[in-house]
Amino acid sequence: MSAIAEEVGRLVPLEDEWPLLRGLLLGLAVGAIVAGALVIGRALRSRRAAQRERGLPPMPGPEASPL
Question: What is the DSSP code string of 24-49?
Answer without folding.
Answer: HHHHHHHHHHHHHHHHHHHHHHHHHH
